[in-house]
Amino acid sequence: QVQLVESGGGAAQAGDSLTLSCAVSGGPFGSYALGWFRQSPGKEREFVAAISWNGVLIYYGDTMKGRFTISRDNAKATVYLQMNSLKPEDTAVYYCGAGTGSTYYTLEMGYKYWGRGTQVTVSS
Known about the structure:
The chain is mainly beta. It is built from no helices and eleven strands. Strands 2, 4, 5, 6, 9, 10 and 11 form a seven-stranded mixed β-sheet that branches. The protein is globular and about 40 Å long.
């Protein structure tokens, strides 16, 4: 079975940097489109970043553009999210997702498998 495990979350100050990792096992990592979403209590899940199976297509949410960078390492079957210039509004649980055969990179419906999430808390 396909399993995704996020790591790297924690507490940070505004302006700090954090890098999240998502390790994927049990499936063909090189065939997956990969995405990051985040969710705060009482809010809907929000698109953060995505990368296509071959790394050619990359997308970011409007508030993440210029601050966050998504990348993938097929040898390690891991997708990363580097977050710079963190803001208090970045506080959320961050989830990674994997999917195949979809062009809906910015929507939850584009991903079949999900991790359990990792908490990021940014203070001012």
